[in-house]
C-alpha cells in the first residue's frame, strides 16, 4: 500500500494548528470550489493517481509537453496570470496588467514579496529572462504573440512591446510554457536546473526517478501565499489504464484520481465515502474532415454528415451526462463560444437532401480514422457509423493507436477523423488560430480548410480589445465555419475529479490541471 | 576435453548469432511500425520546426543503418543500447529498475505453478480416468482458456475492492507489503502456466508409473509414497522443467497483460509503453535482454536436466 | 468410486465445442436481435426476458452480440491456426528430413523467434499491417508456425535416422513418397493435438488484441472488444464484461478438452 498519510496530529493539536493558520492568512477565504464546512488543516501527504506517462521533463519550454509534465510544472512554477475554475483570467505573479491604447505596449506589475523556493526574491529580471527564453526556444507551446521586446522597467514592473495589437497576450502568458524561472536559471545548466527546479509555486520536487511510476512533490516553505500550501507533500502514481484508477480509489489506495472514466461517475457519486467534482473543460471530441482531398472536399457531403448525427444523444450516451452537446468548434467553456449560433442541427431529412445535392451516390463507403485507446471514442465512432447508415453512407472504421494516428492524420492520409483535442487557453483566438485560420501552424488542423473571410476575421479578432466588437467577430467566424463544416464538435467533455471525502480545497481548471495550494486533508 | 571446448565454443557462437538476429529483427520491427517517437510525443499542434529539432535530438534524422550502427556500438562498448527516446534515460537502467518487479512475478508465478501443477498431476495420475482426474482436467482447461486480463479484473474486484485483502494496484513498499502486492499478479500469471506443467507432468507420471523400474520397486515392497517422491516425481519433472525453459520468453512477454491490469511498473509495462511511444531504443533493449535471459535459462535448464537425469547420470541406457 | 471411460474427455470437449459452433452458426435462430443495432435510449439494461444477457452501453443486446461474436472469434481462431500449421509442418518436414544447411537455417530462425517476446512481434506486426482480421492472421502466423516446425522437425529427425526409412529409401521410394506416406502420418496425431490447443491460444491472443483496441474492427461483434467496452461497468453493470468473458472461457475449455481427449486417444492407439 502506498499511503503514507502522516497522522501525526491528535484532535486537539489539529484544532490549534488550524487556528494558527487562519490567523496567519488573515482569515481570508480559500476561494476553492470544494468548500468545506470546517477550517483547513495543515499537514498530510496527498496521493493522486493519474493515467498517462511518468514525469519526464520539467522544462516549461521542452519540445514535448505531455499532460503529466504540464500538470506537474504548474505546481512548481507560477505564471504572470492564471486561469481559474471558470477559465477566467486571474492575477498570479502579476497583480495587474494594462495595454496601451494602441495595444502595442503591455505593462505588468509584479506582486511584491514573492520568493523562489530557494529564498531568492522574484524580480522583473526573472520575468524578462523567462519570456525571452520562451521566445528563443519555442518548445511545445511557443508564444504566438508578435513580441518585439521585453524589458524590466524597475524591479516590480515588466514591459512587453508588440509589433501589432494582440488581445490574447495576457491569456497566452498563463499557459504552462510561460512559467517564470529564475534569471539565467540561477547560473546552472538546463540539465542541472531542471533536475531540481527552483520556482515560486507552492511545491518543489521531492523524489523524482524517471524510471519510477511515482513522483513526489514537497511543500515549498517560501511560498508567497502565507500559510499555504497546507499539504506537506503530494505523491503522484501513474497508471496505464483508467479503470485501475477507480479501483485504487475504491480500494482506498489513493486520495484523489484524475481523468475519472465517465462510465463510473454515477457509481462514484453514490458512494458516500467519495466526492466527485466536475468542471467544464477545454476538451472536445471532434470530427475533422479532409477538405482538400477525397470525398469530404465536397462541402455538401460534410454538411450531410453534420446533420445526420444526433449529437445530443451521442453526448448523453458516451459521456453519461457529464459532457455538454457539441455545437461550434469553440468549446462552451471558452470565451465567446456562441452556443446560439444557427449551426447545422440534427435533421435527417436535411442531411439526406444535402447528400443528394452533393452528388455522392447512396451506399458509398467512407473511411473514419479513429484514435484508439478510449472506450468513449470507439463508441462515438459506432454511433456515427449507425447514423450515416440511416442516410445511406457506409462507414469503415479504422482504429489506429496514437503514434500511427498522429502520423496518418497530419499527413492528411485520411477521409474523416475522430479524436479528442484540447484548447490551450480560454481565449477564442487560440482554438481559432490552430483549427480554422489557414495561416495557423497546422494547415487548419490538417483539414486543409481555407476561407479568406475567416482568415480576415481571425486576424481582426486577434487585434480587437475584449468587448462586444470582439464577441461579434467570433460569432461571425463560428457562423461561417459551421456553414462550411470543416469539423464537427460532438461533445465538450468535462474534467472529472474524484477524491476521498476527507480531501478538500482542490480546484479543477478547464485545462485539466488541479490546483493544490488550497488543498487539505481532514484528519 | 578439446571436443567439449569446441562444442561449447560453437554453442556460444550460436547463442551470439541468435542474439544478433534478435537485435536486428527488433530494430527492424520497431522501425517498420507506422509513426515514430516524434508522432507519439509531439501531440496535436506541433510546428515543423519543433518536429525537426526533436528528430535531430533523437537521432531520427539519420539513415536507419547509421542508427542501427550506433545501437550496436553502444551495445558492444557499454552493454547498453543507448538513451530512451522518451525521457533520455539509459535503457539499461530503465530495464534494471523494472526487472525486479517482473522477475518477482515470474518467479513467484513459477513457484505457485510448480506446486499446484505437481499436486494436480499426482492426484490426476494416481486417479487416472476416475472422477478427480476428470474434474481436474476441466479445471486445467479453464486455466488455459481464461483471458488473463479478465481473470485479473475479477480477482481485483473480489479480493481487493470488496474484501480488501490485497492492494488494488501497484507495488507495495516494505517487504511484507511488497509481497502482498505481488500475490494477485503472480496468481493470475500462474493460472496460465499451471495447465502446461500439470499436463506434461501427468503424462510423464503415467508413463513412469508403468516403467520397469517402478514395477521393480513396487515388487521390492517400497511404499507407494516413497516411490512417488524418490522415483516418479524426479523422473517426470525433467520434461516439465524443459517446458518452463522453452516457454520463458512467452511468459515474460505475457506478464505485460498482468502488469497492465495490476499497474505493476515492470518490464512488460515498459515494453507496452515503448511500443505505444515508438521508443525503438527501449523496444530493442527489452528484446535483447529478454533474449539473453532466455538463452541463458535454456542453457541452465539443459545443464540441470543433464545433472538430474538418472539415465544420463548412469551413463546412458540404464533403463 | 466409478471409473469412467477414457473417451469421456474427448466427448465432453466435442460437446462443448459443438455447442458453441452450433450457436454461432444458428445465431439468427437463437436471437431475434441484430447484434449491431443501436438502441441509445435502452442502454445498460440488466438481464431480462427480452434481453437474457442485458444490453450494453449503446443498447445492443449482449446475448445477440455474444453469439454473433462466436462467429467471428471461432472463425478467426480456427483459420488463424491453419496457415502456421501448414507452413510450420512443411518447413519442419523439410528441415528434419534433409538436415544439413537447410535444417540449420530453419533451426536458427526458430530459435530467434522463440527468444523473442511473443507480444512484441504480434503488437509490432499489427501496428505495421493495421488493425483488422487480415493483420491478425498474418501476425499470428508469423509467430505460431515455429511451434509446429519444431515439433515436426524433431519428430522427422527421429524418423529420418531410423532403419525403416533408410530401407524405404533403399527400396527405391522417392523422398516425396517417404515424407508423404511414412513420416508425415507419424507426426499427424501430435500436430492435430497441437493445433487444437493452439486454437485456444489464438482466441486468447485475438481477445487480448481487441482488449488493447487492436483487434477486430467495430461494429463486428467480438468477445475481446466486448470485455474492453464492459470493463468500466464491471462493478455496476457486470453483465457486459462477464458474459463475453464466460464465452471465451467455455470455448477455450471445449477446445482444450478436445485436445486433451485426442491426445489420450492417440496415446492409447500407440
UniProtKB/TrEMBL annotation, chain A:
Residues 1-18 form the signal peptide. Residues 89-440 form the Solute-binding protein family domain. It holds the Pfam family SBP_bac_5. Keywords: Signal, Transport. InterPro entries: Peptide/Ni-bd (IPR030678), SBP_5 (IPR039424), SBP_5_dom (IPR000914). Belongs to the bacterial solute-binding protein 5 family. PANTHER family: OLIGOPEPTIDE-BINDING PROTEIN APPA, PERIPLASMIC BINDING COMPONENT OF ABC TRANSPORTER. This is ABC transporter substrate-binding protein. It comes from Kineosporia mesophila.
Automatic annotation (TrEMBL), chain C:
It comes from Kineosporia mesophila. Keywords: Cell membrane, Membrane, Transmembrane, Transmembrane helix, Transport. It is a multi-pass membrane protein. The chain crosses the membrane at residues 76-98, 105-129, 191-216, 236-259. Its main location: membrane. It is found in: Cell membrane. Residues 70-259 form the ABC transmembrane type-1 domain. Belongs to the binding-protein-dependent transport system permease family. It comes from the Bacteria. The lineage of its organism: Bacteria, Bacillati, Actinomycetota, Actinomycetes, Kineosporiales. The keyword Transmembrane helix applies. PROSITE patterns: ABC_TM1. This is ABC transporter permease. The keyword Transport applies.
Amino acid at each position: 500500500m502506498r499511503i503514507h498519510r502522516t497522522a501525526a496530529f491528535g484532535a486537539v493539536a489539529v484544532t490549534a494548528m488550524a487556528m494558527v493558520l487562519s490567523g496567519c492568512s488573515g482569515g481570508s477565504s480559500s476561494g476553492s470550489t470544494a468548500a468545506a464546512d470546517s477550517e483547513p488543516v495543515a499537514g498530510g501527504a496527498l496521493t493522486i493517481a493519474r493515467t498517462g506517462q511518468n514525469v519526464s521533463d520539467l522544462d516549461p519550454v521542452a519540445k514535448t509537453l505531455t499532460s503529466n509534465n504540464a500538470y506537474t510544472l504548474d505546481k512548481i512554477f507560477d505564471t504572470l496570470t492564471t486561469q481559474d475554475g471558470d477559465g477566467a483570467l486571474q492575477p498570479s505573479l502579476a497583480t495587474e496588467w494594462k495595454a496601451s491604447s494602441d495595444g502595442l505596449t503591455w505593462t505588468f506589475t509584479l506582486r511584491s514579496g514573492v520568493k523562489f523556493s530557494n529564498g531568492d526574491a522574484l524580480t522583473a529580471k526573472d520575468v524578462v529572462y523567462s519570456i525571452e527564453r520562451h521566445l528563443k526556444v519555442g518548445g511545445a507551446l511557443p508564444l504566438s504573440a508578435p513580441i518585439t521586446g521585453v524589458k524590466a522597467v524597475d524591479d516590480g514592473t515588466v514591459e512587453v512591446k508588440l509589433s501589432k495589437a494582440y488581445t490574447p497576450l495576457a491569456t497566452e502568458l498563463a499557459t504552462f510554457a510561460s512559467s517564470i524561472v529564475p534569471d539565467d536559471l540561477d547560473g546552472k545548466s538546463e540539465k542541472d536546473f531542471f533536475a531540481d527546479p527552483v520556482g515560486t509555486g507552492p511545491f518543489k520536487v521531492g523524489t523524482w526517478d524517471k524510471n519510477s511510476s511515482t513522483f513526489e512533490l514537497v511543500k515549498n516553505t517560501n511560498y508567497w501565499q502565507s500559510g499555504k500550501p497546507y499539504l506537506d507533500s503530494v505523491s503522484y502514481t501513474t497508471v496505464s489504464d483508467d479503470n485501475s484508477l477507480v479501483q485504487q480509489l475504491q480500494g482506498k489506495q489513493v486520495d484523489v484520481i484524475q481523468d475519472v472514466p465517465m462510465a463510473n461517475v454515477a457509481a462514484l457519486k453514490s458512494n458516500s465515502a467519495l466526492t466527485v467534482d466536475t468542471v467544464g473543460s477545454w476538451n472536445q471530441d471532434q470530427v475533422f474532415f479532409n477538405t482538400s482531398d477525397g470525398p469530404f472536399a465536397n462541402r455538401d457531403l460534410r454538411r450531410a454528415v453534420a446533420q445526420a448525427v444526433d449529437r445530443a444523444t451521442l453526448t448523453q450516451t458516451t459521456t453519461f451526462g457529464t459532457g455538454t452537446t457539441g455545437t461550434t468548434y469553440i468549446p462552451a467553456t471558452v470565451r465567446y463560444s456562441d452556443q446560439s449560433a444557427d449551426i447545422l442541427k440534427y435533421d435527417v431529412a436535411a442531411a439526406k437532401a444535402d447528400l443528394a445535392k452533393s452528388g455522392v451516390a447512396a451506399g458509398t463507403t467512407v473511411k473514419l480514422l479513429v484514435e484508439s485507446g478510449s472506450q468513449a471514442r470507439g463508441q462515438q465512432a459506432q454511433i456515427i457509423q449507425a447514423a450515416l447508415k440511416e442516410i445511406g453512407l457506409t462507414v469503415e472504421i479504422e482504429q489506429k493507436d496514437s503514434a500511427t494516428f498522429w502520423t496518418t492524420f497530419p499527413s492528411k492520409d485520411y477521409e474523416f477523423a475522430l479524436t479528442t483535442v484540447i484548447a490551450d487557453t480560454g481565449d477564442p483566438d487560440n482554438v481559432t488560430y490552430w483549427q480554422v485560420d489557414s495561416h495557423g501552424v497546422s494547415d487548419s488542423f490538417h483539414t486543409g480548410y481555407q476561407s479568406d473571410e475567416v482568415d480576415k476575421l481571425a486576424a481582426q479578432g486577434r487585434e480587437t480589445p475584449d468587448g462586444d466588437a470582439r464577441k461579434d467577430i467570433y460569432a461571425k467566424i463560428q457562423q461561417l465555419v459551421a456553414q462550411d463544416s470543416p469539423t464537427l464538435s460532438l461533445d465538450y467533455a468535462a474534467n472529472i475529479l474524484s477524491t476521498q471525502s476527507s480531501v478538500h480545497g482542490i480546484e479543477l481548471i478547464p485545462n485539466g490541471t488541479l490546483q493544490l495550494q488550497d488543498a487539505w486533508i481532514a484528519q | 576435453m578439446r571436443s567439449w571446448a569446441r562444442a561449447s565454443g560453437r554453442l556460444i557462437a550460436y547463442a551470439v548469432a541468435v542474439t544478433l538476429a534478435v537485435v536486428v529483427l527488433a530494430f527492424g520491427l520497431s522501425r517498420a511500425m507506422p509513426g515514430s517517437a516524434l508522432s507519439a510525443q509531439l501531440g496535436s499542434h506541433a510546428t515543423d520546426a519543433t518536429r525537426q529539432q526533436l528528430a535531430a535530438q533523437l537521432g531520427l534524422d539519420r539513415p536507419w543503418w547509421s542508427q542501427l550502427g550506433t545501437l550496436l556500438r553502444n551495445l558492444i562498448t557499454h552493454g547498453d543500447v543507448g538513451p530512451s527516446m522518451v525521457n533520455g534515460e539509459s535503457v539499461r537502467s530503465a530495464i534494471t529498475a523494472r526487472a525486479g518487479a517482473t522477475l518477482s512475478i515470474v518467479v513467484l508465478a513459477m513457484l505457485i505453478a510448480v506446486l499446484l501443477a505437481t499436486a494436480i498431476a499426482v492426484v490426476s495420475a494416481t486417479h487416472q480416468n476416475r472422477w478427480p482426474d476428470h474434474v481436474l482436467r476441466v479445471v486445467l482447461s479453464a486455466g488455459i482458456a481464461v483471458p488473463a486480463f479478465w481473470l485479473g479484473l475479477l480477482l481485483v474486484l473480489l479480493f481487493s475492492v470488496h474484501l480488501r485483502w490485497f492492494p488494488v494496484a501497484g507495488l507495495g513498499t516494505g517487504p511484507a507489503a511488497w509481497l502482498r502486492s505481488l500475490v494477485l499478479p503472480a496468481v493470475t500469471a500462474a493460472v496460465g502456466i499451471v495447465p502446461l506443467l500439470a499436463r506434461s507432468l501427468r503424462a510423464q507420471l503415467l508413463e513412469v508409473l508403468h516403467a520397469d523400474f517402478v514395477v521393480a520397486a513396487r515388487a521390492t515392497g517400497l511404499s507407494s509414497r516413497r516411490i512417488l517422491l524418490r522415483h516418479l516425481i524426479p523422473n517426470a519433472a525433467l520434461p516439465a522443467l524443459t517446458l518452463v525453459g522453452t516457454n520463458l520468453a512467452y511468459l515474460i512477454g505475457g506478464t505485460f497483460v498482468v502488469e497492465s491490469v495490476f499497474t505493476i511498473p515492470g518490464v512488460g509495462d515498459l515494453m507496452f509503453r515503448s511500443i505505444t511511444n515508438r521508443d525503438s531504443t527501449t523496444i530493442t533493449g527489452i528484446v535483447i535482454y529478454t533474449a539473453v535471459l532466455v538463452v541463458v535459462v535454456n542453457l541452465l535448464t539443459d545443464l540441470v536436466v543433464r545433472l538430474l537425469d538418472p539415465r544420463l547420470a548412469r551413463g546412458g541406457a540404464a533403463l | 468410486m466409478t471409473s469412467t471411460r477414457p473417451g469421456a474427455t474427448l466427448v465432453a470437449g466435442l460437446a462443448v465445442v459443438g455447442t458453441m459452433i452450433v450457436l454461432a452458426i444458428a445465431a439468427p435462430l437463437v436471437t431475434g436481435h441484430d447484434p449491431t443495432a443501436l438502441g441509445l435510449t435502452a442502454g445498460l439494461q440488466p438481464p431480462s426476458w427480452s434481453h437474457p444477457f442485458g444490453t450494453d452501453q449503446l443498447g445492443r443486446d449482449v446475448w445477440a452480440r455474444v453469439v454473433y461474436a462466436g462467429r467471428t472469434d471461432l472463425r478467426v481462431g480456427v483459420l488463424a491456426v491453419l496457415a502456421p500449421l501448414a507452413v510450420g509442418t512443411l518447413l519442419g518436414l523439410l528441415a528434419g528430413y534433409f538436415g544439413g544447411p537447410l535444417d540449420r537455417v530453419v533451426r536458427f530462425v526458430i530459435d530467434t523467434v522463440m527468444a523473442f517476446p511473443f507480444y512484441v512481434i504480434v503488437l509490432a506486426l499489427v501496428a505495421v499491417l493495421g488493425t483488422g482480421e487480415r493483420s491478425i492472421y498474418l501476425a499470428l502466423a508469423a509467430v505460431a508456425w515455429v511451434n509446429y516446425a519444431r515439433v515436426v522437425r524433431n519428430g522427422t529427425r527421429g524418423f529420418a535416422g531410423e532403419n525403416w526409412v533408410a530401407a524405404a529409401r533403399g527400396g527405391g521410394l522417392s523422398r516425396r513418397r517417404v515424407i508423404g506416406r511414412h513420416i508425415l502420418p507419424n507426426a499427424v496425431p501430435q500436430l492435430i493435438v497441437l493445433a487444437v490447443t493452439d486454437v485456444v491460444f489464438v482466441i486468447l491472443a485475438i481477445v487480448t488484441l481487441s482488449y488493447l483496441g487492436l483487434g477486430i474492427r467495430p461494429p463486428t461483434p467480438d468477445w475481446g472488444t466486448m470485455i474492453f467496452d464492459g470493463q468500466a461497468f464491471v462493478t455496476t453493470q457486470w453483465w457486459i464484461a462477464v458474459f463475453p468473458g464466460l464465452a471465451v472461457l467455455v470455448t477455450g475449455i471445449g477446445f482444450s478438452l478436445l485436445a486433451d481427449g485426442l491426445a489420450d486417444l492417440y496415446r492409447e492407439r500407440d
